[in-house]
Design goal:
Radius of gyration: 23 Å
Strand content: 35-45%
CATH superfamily of the largest domain: TolB, C-terminal domain
Shape: globular
Number of helices: 5
CATH topology of the largest domain: Neuraminidase
CATH architecture of the largest domain: 6 Propeller
Number of strands: 37
Low-confidence stretches: none
Helix content: under 10%
Length: 493
């Protein structure tokens, strides 16, 4: 093509997200994100593609549709639609037809989780703890703009803003009737819920301690899926930091991503027994961080394959890779690794659907054979139509012997000295990698205009082991200072 990126080029790219593989393994539904430059916003609609190939088809006409999840029998899709207000749960027949709204909550609904029998959907959603019986949506929404009195550090959240009197609680909605029940109470937020295999319990995480905002403690609980008056039961120790992400296949353990202490460090894949006893860390020998995904972070929720193995993501050299491991912690192996970066994960039978970005692609829907590790790319949505300027992986040996990995992006045809942008990732426990990246499109634009862009993973970055991850504890900006300065000196020299 011999043409590099412009701002308009990058704004025109469509990006697939949130793949959902049908239970029979024949279709992948995903959200396709586009940019509306004039409105200064992203738009999302749901699309589907056959796992045997062919052109993708648009499923929904909304412009804020996301988070598709198949019903267990594959007859319907639940998804979120933000239409003139906060996102609500909708259900779409898989055979076609019109989607119908399932909730109309004043503050919206969260990601759907189908019950094993397909009759109910669980989700987490904000509730106004100051609301009086009978208050309407207008009154509740007006309160959000009122002055806030904060008596906790967690009075606001990135992406949500000021919380005020809002607390996230567990809900269950009956798919046939639309009746909604709130299952949790209190001042502590509840995480997204996960159904037990028999549908009787929901697992979730919460930090209910009075001093929770001063600690890293996050505990794992289970609660009845039918009795709103039952008390949640803590299945973890008190001094853990763990987010529930599922269940063991036999329903005797809650699966969580986190740590069995409250120290800074890698998160493992943990099994907490319902009957009590010590948790099992399935991934401790891997010395890498498990990535369940989230805002600003790649990865995906762990899920079971047909043979009982757990399929999950962990971070290596800055990239989120796809792995599998037996429930006893044996036979761990990578399925998608190298320069690929995985975001989104959906498992059905012997296959998984992911979105995989690479140095040559901003991200496409990919089908993974979980036995062989082979991959098939199903979409071409983000084909840029211009030449991507690749990032060259570099390793720098710091004066104390520590090796720091980075990527240098510059026009291959450029000659002589170039102005340099050192882009520092946040966290500090995040990481750069070499895959094409629509979150930081200015890298391509600046490189096309004669800049060199250096991204480094200094001490404290994710993907290099627990000791490296923890190396800036108590010394952020000090312990890692030479990890920035010395690579720049090396490039100048």
């Amino acid at each position: 093509m011999n043409r590099t990126a412009t701002v308009d080029d990058l704004l025109a790219i469509a990006s697939p997200e949130q793949p959902a593989l049908s239970p029979d393994g024949t279709r992948v539904v995903y959200a396709l994100r586009t940019t509306d430059r004039d409105a200064d916003r992203d738009r999302r609609s749901l699309w589907q593609v056959s796992t045997t190939g062919g052109e993708p088809e648009r499923l929904t006409r909304g412009d804020a549709d996301s988070t598709p999840v198949w019903s267990p029998d594959g007859s319907a899709l639940a998804f979120l639609r933000a239409e003139d207000g906060p996102a609500q749960l909708w259900v779409l027949p898989a055979s076609g037809g019109e989607a119908r709204a399932l909730t109309a909550l004043p503050l919206g609904a969260g990601s759907p989780q189908w019950s094993p029998d397909g009759a109910r959907i669980a989700f987490a959603a904000p509730v106004d703890s100051a609301a009086l019986p009978g208050e309407g949506a207008e009154t509740i929404l007006t309160r959000r703009s009122a002055p806030t009195v904060a008596d906790r550090l967690g009075y606001k959240i990135d992406g949500a803003g000021r919380l005020g009197t809002l607390v996230q609680q567990l809900h269950v909605v009956d798919v046939a009737t639309g009746a909604v029940a709130v299952l949790t109470r209190g001042h502590a937020h509840a995480s997204d819920p996960f159904w037990s295999p028999d549908g009787s319990l929901l697992a979730y995480s919460s930090a209910p301690d009075d001093d929770a905002d001063l600690t890293l403690r996050i505990q794992v609980f289970v609660t009845s899926s039918t009795d709103a008056n039952s008390a949640p039961v803590r299945v973890s120790a008190a001094a853990v930091q763990a987010s529930a992400v599922g269940w063991s296949a036999d329903g005797r353990h809650v699966l969580a991503a986190g740590r069995t202490d409250t120290e800074v460090g890698n998160a493992g894949l943990l099994l907490f027994p319902l009957a009590g006893g010590d948790p099992i860390d399935l991934t401790s020998a891997l010395d890498r961080n498990v990535m369940p995904g989230g805002p600003g972070y790649p990865g995906g929720m762990p899920q079971h394959a047909a043979d009982g193995a757990l399929v999950f993501c962990l971070r290596e050299n800055g990239s989120s890779h796809l792995w599998r491991i037996a429930e006893d912690g044996s036979a761990a192996r990578a399925l998608v690794d190298g320069a690929a970066n995985v975001s989104g994960l959906s498992v059905a039978g012997t296959s998984a659907a992911i979105v995989r970005s690479t140095p040559d692609s901003f991200g496409e829907v990919v089908l993974v054979d979980l036995a062989e590790g082979t991959t098939t790319t199903l979409t071409a949505s983000s084909d840029p139509g211009f030449d991507l300027i690749p990032a060259e992986e570099r390793r720098f040996t710091i004066s104390d012997g520590t090796v720091v990995t980075g990527w240098l992006r510059r026009d291959r045809n450029a000659t002589g000295p170039l102005p340099l942008l050192l882009d520092v990732h946040g966290g500090p426990h995040n990481a750069w990698n070499g895959a094409a990246d629509l979150v930081h499109p200015y890298h391509q634009v600046l490189a096309s205009r004669g800049w060199a862009i250096l991204t480094l993973n200094p001490r404290g970055s994710d993907g290099y082991g627990d000791a490296f991850f923890r190396a800036v504890a108590g010394g952020w900006g000090v312990n890692d200072a030479n990890d920035f300065l010395e690579p720049i000196d090396a490039l100048v020299a």
